[in-house]
UniProtKB/TrEMBL annotation:
Transmembrane segments: 53-73, 80-99, 105-126, 138-160, 166-187, 199-218, 224-248, 260-281, 301-325, 337-355, 361-381, 402-425, 437-459
NCBIfam families per UniProt: efflux_EmrB, PRK10504.1
Domain Major facilitator superfamily (MFS) profile: 14-466
Keywords: Cell membrane, Membrane, Transmembrane, Transmembrane helix, Transport
Subcellular location: Cell membrane
UniProt xrefs under InterPro entries: EmrB-like (IPR004638), MFS (IPR011701), MFS_dom (IPR020846), MFS_trans_sf (IPR036259)
Principal localisation: membrane
Transmembrane helix in keyword set: yes
UniProt protein name: Transport protein HsrA
Pfam families, A to Z: MFS_1
Topological category with respect to the lipid bilayer: Multi-pass membrane protein
Encoding gene, per UniProt annotation: hsrA_1
Superkingdom per UniProt: Bacteria
Length: 478
């Protein structure tokens, strides 16, 4: 495990602060999943319609990420990092005090605003304060908690649900947030740009509205209960807004801010294929952390703690597979590796359609570990492919766009999985009424095919694509 020993001692408190902030953000992205059935019982809701709790957080994070850098430059890193921890902590308290699903969703939005700023502002501070020769060990140290959070999140969430109540998955953030806010005032430098420049508010509004409308349209038929006409209107307006942003990004008007993500980024083949492949591959995989704990508890009779423990093989295998992903890229090149691995990810996801109460536990563990292995290799390859050829101004914009797409695809993935599960549940009827297990099986097959279809995007890579591993390896934090 990387340590902060190779970084100046004066900078180590800052690294610990940023690391804890990243840990809070990644932990909260996964700790909720195993608690959804308990939340549903407490709030008198169906556990199959709780995906909005996850979507509210991930979508808010995706929408605000593009503005995080400008906000830090405009108001200073100390003020924005303090605001991030404060909002995250207040949002956690509001979540714990929620007495209805609508209130919980609104509280998760507040929490998501804080979460959207924690990681980008923290990493931006490290980038600007730490000397270049110490940057790699500093970022390696900071990003390790981002790997540990998903590893312990589901199990910790399941244990808290059984030991006390689901409210404590949010209440545990309060003491950490309070200490983090006080430490921020003491150790976080107040870094800001000499000239924060103009911000493309017009483009940002188009992009944010487009992301929100498309995500709401997917979630509208299930969690939100929208009518078909409302879903159709939202989808059309969302796609129109994203199209308008694409056209807007190609314009350069003197005296106005440049686009958040210039279209010239897509002139780089590795970036355009990597970012589109990231989006579509992750829409399928993004629903798995939502579906698996729900399947285990709703249809297979697992307790919250047992369901959380069953997620450990996914995260543990994912961490262990990081070197394997790098080896596969070097050995086979990006095109062949990603084409085959994307199909394998989709196949392992679809294989959950055979998971029944009769399947031995050891076989479920192997199945989960295989999914974690292929999924981790997929993330490593997609991220390095997307960023490896970027330089200069493109590096910052491309990295920000990748972070936004990662969060957006999680939101779209959960929304799509929830819509599929609700649809199949309504139309899958067995001898004893609705066959929930069969609905899960059909949903896993669909999301598996959705992910596997992204292999054709990676097939568009050049056959002569060299097998390069990104020199700035610290950008891959998954």
């Amino acid at each position: 495990m990387p340590t902060s020993a190779s970084v100046d001692k004066s900078l180590q408190p800052l690294l610990w602060l940023v690391a804890v902030g990243l840990f809070m953000q990644t932990l909260d992205s996964t700790i909720v999943n195993t608690a959804l059935p308990a939340m549903a019982r407490s709030l008198s809701e169906s556990p199959l319609k709780m995906q909005s709790v996850i979507i509210a957080y991930t979508l808010t994070t995706a929408m605000l990420m593009p503005a995080s850098g400008w906000l830090a430059d405009r108001f200073g890193t100390r003020r924005m990092f303090f605001a991030a921890i404060f909002l995250f902590t207040i949002g956690s308290l509001l979540c714990a005090e929620s007495r209805s699903l609508d209130m919980l969703i609104a509280s998760r939005v507040v929490q998501g605003v804080g979460g959207a700023l924690l990681m980008p502002v923290g990493r931006l501070t490290v980038l600007r304060v730490v000397p270049r020769e110490q940057f790699l060990p500093a970022m390696s140290f900071v990003t390790i908690p981002g790997l540990i959070g998903p590893l312990i999140g589901p199990t910790l969430g399941g244990w808290l649900v059984e030991a006390v109540s689901w409210h404590w998955i949010f209440l545990i953030n309060l003491p950490v947030g309070l200490i983090g806010a006080l430490v921020t005032l003491k150790v976080m430098p107040d870094v800001r740009a000499d000239d924060e420049g103009r911000f493309d508010w017009t483009g940002y509004a188009m992009l944010a509205f487009g992301m929100a409308a498309v995500s709401f349209s997917l979630d509208g038929l299930s969690g939100l209960g929208f009518q078909h006409a409302t879903v159709l209107v939202l989808l059309i307006f969302g796609l129109a807004a994203l199209t308008a942003y694409w056209l807007h990004a190609g314009r350069t008007v003197e005296g106005k801010a440049g686009p958040l993500f210039p279209r010239s980024l897509f002139a780089i083949p590795s970036f355009s294929i990597g970012i589109l492949g990231n989006l579509f591959a992750r829409i399928g995989t993004g629903g798995m952390p939502f579906l698996i704990p729900l399947l285990l508890q709703v249809s297979l009779g697992y307790s919250p703690l047992q369901a959380g423990l069953m997620m450990v093989p996914v995260a543990a295998a994912g961490m262990a597979a990081k070197p394997l992903g790098t080896w596969a890229i070097k050995r086979f090149g990006y095109r062949r590796m990603l084409f085959i691995n994307t199909l394998m990810v989709g196949l392992t996801m679809a294989s959950f359609a055979v998971m029944t109460p009769d399947v031995p536990v050891w076989l479920r563990v192997v199945q989960l570990a295989l999914f974690g292995t292929f999924n981790s290799m997929q993330f490593t390859a997609m991220n390095t492919l997307t960023l490896k050829d970027l330089s200069g101004p493109h590096a910052s914009a491309g990295n920000s766009m990748l972070s936004m797409v990662m969060m957006l695809s999680m939101s779209l993935g959960v929304a799509a999985a929830g819509a599929l599960l609700t649809g199949f549940t309504d139309f899958t009827v067995g001898p004893e009424g609705r066959d929930t297990l069969a609905a899960f099986h059909k949903t896993f097959v669909c999301v598996g095919f959705m992910t596997g279809a992204a292999a054709w995007i990676f097939a568009q890579l050049s056959h002569a694509e060299p097998a390069q591993v990104l020199k700035r390896a610290e950008v891959d934090v998954e």
